[in-house]
Amino acid sequence: MNLQDEVERQPIRNVIGRIMGYESPEKIVYAGNHRDAWCFGAVDPGSGTAVMLEVVRVFGELVRRGWRPRRTIVFASWDAEEYNLIGSTEHVEEGIDVLRQHAVAYLNVDSAVSGKEFRASGNPVFEKALTNTLGRVMMPEGNETALSHWTKAGSKLEGLGAGSDYVAFQGSSSSSLHLQTSPANDASHLQTSPARPPSTLVSPVPKPATPTTRAKNPLPGSNPSSTPPTTIKPPWPRFGRC
Description:
Elements: E1 15-19, E2 24-34, H1 46-64, E3 71-78, H2 86-94, H3 96-102, E4 103-108, E5 117-122, H4 127-134, H5 146-152, H6 166-169, E6 175-182
Parallel strand pairs: 2-3, 2-4, 4-6
Antiparallel strand pairs: 1-3, 5-6
Helix pairs in contact: 4-5
């Protein structure tokens, strides 16, 4: 028997970015993926990382044109997922009370692209929003919508598993959704998770202050300087080293 366990402790680092919301800035929508891999990582997590970075780029361009989301969006690149989901779990445990009160959803992108078949799994509350969105997206091949292709294949919104960074958020955010394209026999997916009621666990994160001003959402292309800032004390977990 050949044992090659590594017992040396190493620091890990999560990379966090956020776009403040204009209407409910205390409410948080997470989008995340890990960046460590067991081997080369082309699919897991490379494909998910590529998708998330492109989303970040698009949102960054919208922000430069003056757009802002209604709720705050947090993008997270987790470390040490393959070692038992350490990066995301440490982040959630550090700010569990704040997340239970203010996290709206967690969107997880892991093995996002490995085939042509679209799959989705998550909280049933997302089913209507998912089908509405799929009806507006065209398949890369053929002349049909993603919803038509999905329906013909007999697909449906599946239940969540327990194999990626959404696991820690299942006890803190309100809902979760996982989307992916994969081979017909591939069970991997993109996920979000449901929340538990607030608990009595003590968190070092301070309680959020009530927002004192609200700003209207500027349209793309408008002058960002014309929009008054939203005065709040952000309720975020402390984004430090794990």
